[in-house]
Every structure is written in structure tokens, then in C-alpha cells.
Amino acid sequence: MSDVMAPMAGARSEGLISIEALPPQGQISLRCEVSDDYRAKLGELLGLGIPEPLSAVEEGDRALLWMAHDELLLLLPYDAVPEMLARLNTTFEGWFIAITDVSDARAQFRLSGPHLRDVLSKVTPADISPDAFTPGMVRRSRLAQVAAGYWLRSASEAQVFVFRSVADYAFQVLSLAAGPGGEVHHHTREAISEQDASSHV
Amino acid sequence: MLILHCPCCGVDAAEIELAPGGEAHLKREGPGSSDAALETYLFTRDNPRGVVLERWRHAYGCGKWFLAARDSVTMEVYGTYAAQTHAPPQEIVDRITARHPGWAEAL
Amino acid sequence: MSTRLATGGRFTDRGKQIGFTFNGRRFTGFEGDTLASALLAGDQLLVGRSFKYHRPRGIVASGAEEPNALVGLGQGARFEPDQRATTTELFDGLVAESQNHWPSLAFDVGEINAKLARFLPAGFYYKTFLWPRSFWKYVYEPVIRQSAGLGKAPHPEVRDADRYEHFHAHTDVLIVGGGVAGLQAARNAAHAGVQVLLMEQAAHWGGRAPVDGGTIEELAPEAWVAQTVAELEAMDNVRLRLRCMGAGVYDHGYALGYERVTDHRPGAQGPRHRLWRIRAKQIVSATGAIERPLSFAGNDVPGVMLASAVRDYVVNYGVAPGDRTVVVTNNDDAYRTAILLKQSGLDVPAILDARPMGGGALMQEARDLGIRVEPARGISKVLGGARVTGVAICDQAGGGSMLEEIACDAVAMSGGWSPVVHLWSHCGGKLTWDADGAFFRPDPSRAPTGADGKPFVIAAGSANGHLGLQEALACADGAGKAAIEAMGCGFEESPVPKAESTAEAPLLPVWLMPQGARADLRMKAFLDYQNDVKVSDVQLAAREGYESVEHAKRYTTLGMATDQGKLSNINGLAILSDALGAPIPQTGTTTSRPPYTPISFGAIAGEARDAVFQPLRRTPMQDWHEANNAAWEIVGQWRRPYCYPRPGESRHAAVNREISATRESLGLLDASTLGKILVKGPDAGRFLDMMYTNMMSTLPVGKCRYGLMCNENGFLMDDGVVVRLSEDSWLCHTTSGGADHVHAHMEDWLQCEWWDWKVYTANLTEQYAQIAVVGPNARKLLEKLGGMDVSKEAMPFMTWADGRLADTPVRVYRISFSGELSYEIAVPANRGRAFWGKLLEAGAEWNITPYGTEALHVMRAEKGFIMIGDESDGTVIPQDLGLHWAISKKKEDFLGKRAQQRPDMARDGRWQLVGLETLDGSVLPDGAYAIAAGKNANGQRNTQGRVTSTYFSPTLNKGIAMGLVEHGPDRMGEVLSFTAETQDETRDELTTVEAKIVSPVFFDPKGEKQDV
Ligand SMILES: [Zn+2]
């Protein structure tokens, strides 16, 4: 057994959507001003653009998520963290910045399926409608009673992150929300036709 | 169940994403201040029926504090603005004054 | 009798029979029936007993306004009281029972209350049960308990078998009510391209129009409804919801919808109810209108119904509530009922029309059908007890002298209609009196306003007082367009659908029938069926001086509970205003509160029950604790091991074993819950000097320092060890419950006060698993694991180092909360569980013993270390706890410094921390007070101190305690008396325990054990 165990690692539930706890994910929090000089330096180092507010940029196995006007979250392979930390620290030597490894602090889930938006709307007050929350956007809000981040990766897939201590809670709440018979057919027409098909069987 | 626009991240946040922080623009009184000034700072709040300037934190969102000008009776929101100020911006003052003539003078 | 007709029933499918039971008796109905329609089809008129007098009651209405037919539905884990039969869709195997009866529905002991009605007048709660006092226990309470309450609560041990959920919806326009008005408003809004959510509480679209007749665009209303629903369903921007009630409207366009997802198909997969938490820019309230009863004697006898409800049962369910129905009215609409009944082949012996000249075209139509119409007449009283047998008719203008008795088995009454203004009113919309219609309707100049200060609720159709079909459609058409305009959107001009219906003559307000009803009649004329409020009660309240409508409501209970004024409001107000001699608009109206009709607790709770009732935070080692039989202590949302009892071992014994093993050899604690906040930046030192009472800026890199945090009021807020990581970064440990709060506190000061200081914080609490390795053999264990030098020389007390242990990256702090040699080791949380296992394995040779929070507490108390929340309670300053050494005198300022200079903080005689030792070695009761001489101004014993922490110390083999005592540190050796409960549980008395004031440091006062 590996010494490294992500919270809820391997947990999976199938319902209106699939919910899967992701393996350990490298995560580096960057608190800094997102001014031109920081942008330039970060962009050069990471090979990634700087995300607009409430969004993310991704490239290969790396992504940069906008968390607040002075906070970014870098996602990268777990094993790549020490080297990246070292490079960041060197690059920003003497700059006003807080670079912290938070890879173990958060649990990441992948949610996918045609009922994605409906299931999310059961647990978060954020506007999840297709007009308001488009692929590539990041929104921090609530997941039932805990704080969570939502990164919409496509129309039917999202990555959701919570603090690791409440990973079990989040997984259970999401699984309940995705429970059978809980179709709402509010956000998507496809889901509606799907129901019509099944109800006539 | 208010909705306040968070000026820090641009989200229209439902009240359950927010944490309240009481009256805005208090002047901190540290060592050397008089007992009366300290009392005002720590304990004396106007809590008016009408226009209130108050602190909110987008606790479940971007985590930032911001300020809101709101009517405690009608729930009208005159605007939200950065916490790093000592007074509301003019456009918000104008909006308040349009509803409550003489409000700015009475401050 | 009440029967199923040979044909008819829009909603029922006669091909599908459904069996159900009511009070154990088997009935059958059809698919599409409500419980009420099926009961009526089975001639079950008597459905319950009234709340106060236990009078027999029958079904009055056909919808949400039904006051009487509240039943207990389901069994066992699915039992629910107070379910409205008129809105309960029938399903196979439904089990219902009536309420408020004892011992049986037909024979009820409580009916004696009715005989005593003159002794149970308005305000009887307030008057009757006051004296004598002793009667409460033996007479009043047992009797009230037997007969009080609406229905009975489910058994406390039964768990609800269903699940519930919330749904957050954001929409441009929310339209509540799926009648023709709601549909037309939705149409207009939808064609403008905005998002529309339309909800209807019933299982069918169209509301009353298909029953009431007329035409819309030359179609029967039902056909127009079907066409419009199809049109809306085809639109991408429209969402339609049946069985979803608009329950409430709140600030800033927040609205609650209550969807009954599987009530009508129990056992189906999925949630039973769904609570819609809606954010709408505009809300259209198209909630219709409700017919009013007339106030005549016996208007509550089973068989007396609203005229519109009679019509609904005939048209929608093919059920006739009576063979011979007398219609009594003050308006034209009720004639529709008479005409329908006649056309359905049923008898209508008479229409009693209180208006001197009767009605208009509809009256003529009734007469042409051969129905006897009696203008200027009313009902003196209804004959019959458990069901209607006839009516005594009288002149409406008189006092009630009987002119004639007419035999009948049903009475259809109509006192006019009241718009459903509830949603309008919930969020502050005001009403205006409409003298022509004799009702309150929404006052558009005083609408509920939203965040922008502009109206966000628009009333449409009959909910806005437009009762005629054409008027309602025109109003709704305007409402839909107004909602679009309010959002700054344009809309295409489109004509209002053309409707035709028979013109109606004006109504005559009739608040009492007959107008001068004698006292004995008024005592039987019910205003509020559900709360058993009669005309005489409201008149009495007025005579007793309850002039405000809000007071009169509470005194008489008129319009309280689930009714919320639906049926009773206007009639009651009119009686009150008459008694006060003031016009109705001046008398005012009460405010209806959400929800519109009751919603389930399950829906309110949503998914928050059982395992996810609230978040339970888990450390990386939680599964090990669970697998090793931990007893739990709740710390915020964490559940920390209190101790780990072995099979057959008591908790107390386990705690003692854990302490002894730790002090003698080696203990292990999961300390991951401790807060860990990184503070970094050029101004971080300066910032921490403000946050802590100590000087943190001077802490050398590599060192640790215990720090105290106060709020601006000077009171102790949190404590923990602060670590200097590098020139510009510190790591602040907080208490287990305090991490989020302390982090927020720091951010507050950084963002809102010293925003120009260059400091960043990061809450790293969950990044690390933290494990305390404690005891004389702690160093040996770490040396055995290998990888870094943990010797005293390399790592002295109160220092830290990064390194590797057992091939795991670690940060090791040499700090101690137990007084033992101790290392706190932080490892990346993902590795926490594995590292814990390595420590256990390697420590076996020293009998390594995981210990819980209780052992932690006892060991810290033995050392005299304070605990936030025990020694501090929000009124305690560090100086009270003898922590002067941790308060910098060099610093000009820190949070709380100024407040600690307030006279009360600096005064002599504050209670201060001491140790306490009972003379007999027993354990002092927690929270016990030390008694002082004399009494205070309130006649209470004076006190001079209290116990803040108290434990049995296995190390010292006696009780030890800490407490706050007046001048305590100056009174060493003095003996105080503490109050305590007697050990004898049968005696409800207090005794005293004597304890001596000692130093709070009970163990190793020189600290030799930890610094080795
Ligand atoms: Zn924000």
C-alpha cells in the first residue's frame, strides 16, 4: 500500500451522475497581486495564461484556477509539486507572494453525466444554469453546509473540491442528490427527452 | 434572504454565502484613547431604521470583505463597495440621497 | 346522500379503481380522485371533529383552503398528521384516519365541549385556566393534553422513511399559479425570451376556468388551457411544474416552492418533497381567489359546502355531494352551481339569494330551468347534526324567524370571493379595500420592493381582484408584459385573448345571515371552522376592548394555524368592524405569513438528516480511531477520540490507563485538528504583534512561542504555539475549534483595517496531519524511526526542524501540552494515516498508547495549563489567568490592549486562576460555585469563585481542579465551600464540598520532565 492516501480515494457512486473521488492531486496556492509583472513571471514559468476572474485555464496536466483577486490555485501532478515549489520559490525570491503546498488540504471529485447541473443545483445556491455557468468557469460557493469550489470542465463534467476533512460529507451529500428518482429536468432539455423516453417504456 | 453583489469577485451572492460583520467605517481606538472614545468604538452602534452601512464577508466565495449600503426597512441596496475605504463612494451617496434627502449632511 | 354520478369527472379515470381505507373502513375511488372526492363518493360526509368543541365536521372546500378535512395519512414510518383530504391525490392502499376525536369519530367525548360552548368563549385560553393554580397539574393539563392540538404527532421513535431535497433555481420570471391567468402571463413573458418558471400547486393546469365555463378565443377553457400548455412546453426558456406550490415570497426576489414529488405514488424512487429555493427577478402571483362561506347558524354541519366546491366535485370528479342541494348566495356565481346540479339531474329545491332583487342573467337561466329562486331570503339555521337534513329559511333583513323549512341533504353557499393575496403580502405588499367586490386586493402602488427599490411582485387575474374571465385574462396579460418591462426587456405587442362568459349582477356584502341574527344563532355561526371561532366570539372580543385586528386575531385565534385567513379573514374582519363601528378598510387586516399552506419539516431539512445532518470533519486518522473503538468528544464539527476503551474497560479506566502509559512510557495523540495558519510577508511580524499579546516579531527563526490572542474587548479569544518559519513567515497554531474563526479574524484586520500592510495568510490546517508523540520514550521512538537528529542538543525544547522520519517528510516541533518530553510531528495529510501506523508499529516495544482528549485535558490540568473554553468564557482576560508573562509590556499596541486598561479590567477583586484540591480527595463538580457570606441585592447567596476544570488525576491519585476565585492567588491554603448536588439521586438537594486553594501546577512544577 502506498503511503499516500487522498481522502475518499477510490470512492465512486453512480446515480443521476457519476461521482468519483480523484487520486492525490498536486495543488499549489499562490497568493499574490495579479498585476502585469506577476502575470508575466507566472506565465513564463508555468506556460499557462492567467485566468480571468471566476475562470480557469488548463494545458495538459496543469491548470490554473482563479480563486480571488489575489489568489490562484495551480493544479498539477502530485509528484511534480516539490520541483514546482522550488522553481516558484526561486523565481519569486524577494517578491511579496505566498506560495503554499495545499495538495493534501483539499479533496477533489469528478462529477459527470447529463444531470450534472440539476444535481449541483440541489447542493449549491450558486446559479448553475447554462447561461450563468459556462464550461471553463470556476465558482466558489457552498456544497450543502460546507464550502466548495466548482470548476465546470464541460457541459456534463465538473471538478468539485472541498476541504479534506469534509470529503466524506461532500461525497455522501452529492450521492444523495444524485439518488435514483431524483431527476429534476430543470436545466437541460436532453434530460427531459430522456425521461419521456423512459416513462413510456 | 438578501442578494449582495460582491465587488471583489463580481458574484451576486446569496445571503447564505455571506457572513455579516456589523457596522462599517468604525474608527479603531487604541492605547491612549479616552474611555468615551473607546466606549463608542466598542459598544455604541446606531442601528438605524433606514440607511445602514455595513460589513459583509463573501465567506463561502472569494473570502473577501466588502461594504454594503442598505436600507434596513425596505431592504433596498444602494450599492456595495470596497472595504478599503473610509466612506462610501459618491455614486452610492448620491443614490442614498435621492431616497433620503439630507442623509449625507446628517452623518 | 353524497354519491358518484353515472358519468363525468374531468380528472378521474373510471377504468382504474383504487382501494383505500378511512378509519379502518374500506372505500374505493378512481384514479384521479382526491381523498376528499373519493370520500364524498362513498357518502362519508363526516371527516373530522373540530379543534375546540369537537363538533362533527365535513368537507367544505375542494382545494388548499379546506379547513376541516385534515386527516392523519399513512402508517408507521410514513404517518403524517394534518394532511388535507382535498389536496391529497388518491393512490392504491392509502390509509387515512380522522383527527381530534376520542374515542371515535361518530361518538366523541369531547363533544361535551360543544355543550359547554358558552363557557369556552373567545380568549378562553387566557381566562379559564388561570385559577386555581393547583388545578393545572391535576385537572386542566390532563384534559387539555387529551383534547388539544391539531392532529397527533408521529411516534417519537419512528423515523421518516422518505427522503427530501432542496433545489436552487434562478429565473427571470417566476409565475405562481397555473390557472388561465398564470398561463397567459407565462405566455407573454416566455415570448419575450426570458427564463420563465411556472408552478401550479395542483396536479392539473387551468385552475377554475374549465369548471366555471365560458370561452377563451372561442375555445372551451379546457381546450385553451391544453393548447397554451403545449405552446409553453415547446419553448426552451420555460419550465413548468405541477404539484408545486408557491409557499412564500421573501426579500430580494427569494421565493420558496414546495413540490410534492412522490406523495401521489408512495414508495416510488426519489424524494418525497422538494423545496425549491428560487431567486426570481420578477414574481407574478396568479394564485386565484377563494370563495367565502356565509355566516349563518349551523354553517359547519357536514353537507354545507362552498358552492364552487360543489361544482368542482361534480365536474372534476363526477361526484355529487347531495341529491337535494339548497344554494344560498349573495352573488351570481353560485347560480352556476345550481344550474350545473340541475343539468346533472339533481334536485335544487331552492336558491336563497340574500340580495333584495336577486341576480341577473344567471338567475334568469336558473328560473328557466325551473329552479325556485327566493330573493331577499337567507338561512336562519341548518337542520341536522352529523349531516344536513334541511334548512330553515328566513328574511335576510330580519332576526331569523323561520318562514319555512326546506328538506335537503346539502347546502351550497357563496359569500363572494376573496383574491389570494398571501404571496403578495408575505414580503410587505399592502392591500386596498375593494368596495364593489367586498374584498381586499393588492394595492399596486404599495407592492413589495426588491434590492433596487422597485416592485418585484405583480398580482395577476383573480388574485388581483379581477374575477371575470375576460378581466382576469386582460390583467394577467398586462402582468406578463409588466414583468418583462420591469426587467428592461421589450416585448411584442399581442392582443389579449378574447374571452366570453355570462355577465354577472353586483354582489351584496353579507357578513351575517340573517342580518340581525339572534344571539343563539350567532353562537352557531362559524367564521373560522378550523379554530372554532364564531361570530359571537369576535363580537365579544370587540366588547372586551380588542380593537386592533391583530389583537383580536390572537385573542380569538381567528385565522391562525394553517388557515392563515384563507376562509375566515374577511368575514371575521367584517364582524369586527361592525362591532367596532368602523369601516372595514379602517379596521385593517391581518398579515398572512408564509408558508401559504403547511409544508413538511422534511422538505425544510432537505438532505440534512442522519449521517449528513451536519458535516462531520474527519482527520486523516479517523478510520483508525473508528476501528479502535474510540469514544467520541464533539469539538466544533470534529469528532475527536475522547479515549479508546478496551473490551470491558470503562471510559474512566481507559482515560487513567492512557495517562499512566503516557507519563510512564509513550503516548500518541492525533492533534490534526489544531489550526495551522501561515502568516507571510514583509509586515507579518508587525501584524502578529497586533494579533497576539506577546511579542512575535522578535521570535528567532527556528523557535516556537506560546501566544495569546485577544479580541478588541480585551477578552481571551484563542491560544496556541506560534512558530517562526523564516525571516518573513510564521505558522500560528490555534485551538481545534478556532482555526476558521482565527483565520477569518486575521483576514478581517488585514482587509479592513491595515489593508496597506504586506501580509498574506493561508489556512493550512488540513494540509497536515499532526501527531503528538509524548512521554519519556518519545525520543527513543523517533530515533528508532530514523532520518533526523532529534536530540536535545539538535532540537532543544521550543524549537522545530524540517526533516524526514521513517522515509516521510516531516516538520517536528518540540512543544509540550502535557509536561512530558514531547514532539509534535506534522506530515502531509495524505501520508498521515501511514505515518500513524509506522509510529504504532515502531512504538510497540514501549507500549505506545494512543490517548484521547480526556487524557490530554487531565495531563494539561495536572500541569496547570489553561484550556480556551474552560478557563476562558468570553469574559476572562489573560491577566485573570495569571498569564501576565505572555502579555508584552514593550508593545505600544495589540488587539485588546486598550480595553484591558478599562477600569473594570484593571480593578482589584477580579476572579483569578488558582488550583483547587478537595479536602477529601474527591472530584469537584464542574462549574460549581464557591459560596461567600451574605446575599446580593436579589436575595441570592454571594459567590466568590467557580470551578473551571475538574478531573481525577491518576498521576496524583486524587481530584484536581482549576477555578477562578476572588483574590485567589493571595489566598493560598484557604478552604472554600463549593455547592454540589447530593450523590443521592432521589434527593433533589444541594450539599457543599470543601476545597483548598493551591497552585494550579499540580505536577512537575519546575518543568523538568519536558525539557530533557
Ligand atoms: Zn466575492
Count up the domains of chain B: 1
Cα shape of chain A: globular
Give the class of chain A from helix and strand content and strand pairing: alpha+beta
Q: Specify the CATH class of chain B.
A: Alpha Beta
User: Major sheet of chain B: size, sense and barrel closure?
Assistant: 4 strands, antiparallel
- Low-confidence stretches of chain A at least 5 residues in length (pLDDT < 50)? 191-201
Rg of chain B is 15 Å
What is the global morphology of chain B? Answer: globular
Which molecules are bound in this entry? zinc ion
**Quaternary organisation:** heterotrimer
Unreliable residue stretches of chain B: none
The name of the CATH architecture of chain B is 2-Layer Sandwich
Which structural class do you get from the secondary structure elements of chain B? alpha+beta
Number of continuous helical runs of chain B:
3
CATH architecture type of the largest domain in chain A: 2-Layer Sandwich
**Euclidean distance between termini CA atoms of chain A:** 47 Å
Please tally the β strands of chain B and state the result: 6
The main pleated sheet of chain A reads as: 6 strands, antiparallel
InterPro entries (chain B): SoxD, SoxD_sf
Organism (chain B): Salipiger bermudensis (strain DSM 26914 / JCM 13377 / KCTC 12554 / HTCC2601) (Pelagibaca bermudensis)
Pfam family, one (chain B): SoxD
GO molecular function (chain B): sarcosine oxidase activity
